[in-house]
Amino acid sequence: MSQTLNRFFKSRFQFSLFLLFVIYLVGITTVLMGHADSLMLLTPYNLIFASGLILFNAEKIDKKYLFWFLLLAIAGFLIEFAGIVTGRIFGIYSYGNGLGIKLLEVPLIIGVNWSILVFSTAAIVYSFHWHRVLKAVFAASMMVAYDILLEPVAIRYDFWQWEGGSIPFQNYLAWWVIAFVMLLGVFSFVKKLKNPIAIYVLAVQTLFFAILIVKDGMKVF
Question: How far apart (Å, rounded) are the C-alpha atoms in residues 179 and 187?
């Protein structure tokens, strides 16, 4: 039975990796051909795809894993809602139409994105022989580095816009604090976080953002 399970997990990962690379190869080719604006309309579906890969490849997906994935998605959505209403969390910003259907002026998919990033970065550092606090510090820093690349892309493709057109430092600080708290909760209560696809999901997304930034001549800072 164990050999059968091992073969299944291995083939599941290989199939997922194949899909991931094919989809992003098509995406990168589309960008290089000058059709990025049309492609970026599919971003909500891409995030659903990414969340599916993370859940499908989790080493041990149980009720607790699913509970925390859903909890962080809801928490992320509510934090974003509080952010646009008050302007006191990330700074003053508003969402455009690039992320699809909105509820209370917040895209429904944005909470899922928080879960994807938290569980992906958690999976990457899961096997490190560090205290969970240090793991959360490192993973939260990874999420901020990811956001630094995401921001110019998000502005260019109408995911969201900042008041005055500049990204406040407050945004990055808030990202780090919120990510740290979420990650600490996950490291404390979800014991099996290993996920072989996680690093590839983040890597191809990062590469995709970098290509968009270079091609369109965007400024990161």
Answer: 12
CA–CA distance, 24 with 207 (Å, rounded to integer):
10
Asked if 141 and 124 touch (Cβ cutoff 8 Å), the reply is no
Distance (Å, whole) CA 100 – CA 110: 10
Structure tokens at 126: 């899961």
Residue 58 φ/ψ region, left for φ over 0, alpha for ψ in the -120 to 50 degree band, beta for the rest: beta
**Residue 129: exposure state from Cβ atoms within 10 A (0-12, 13-18, ≥19):** exposed
Nearest C-alpha neighbor of 138 from the set 124, 149, 154: 124
Count of alpha carbons within 13 angstroms of residue 8, beta-carbon side: 8
Token pair for 72: 């962080």
Helix 43-56 to helix 198-216 angle, to the nearest 10 degrees? 160
Per-residue pLDDT 10s for the chain (221 aa) are: 556 656 655 688 999 999 999 999 999 999 999 999 999 999 999 999 999 999 999 988 899 999 999 999 999 999 999 999 999 999 999 999 999 999 999 999 999 999 999 999 999 999 999 999 999 999 999 999 999 999 999 999 999 999 988 999 999 999 999 999 999 999 999 989 999 999 999 999 999 999 999 998 888 87
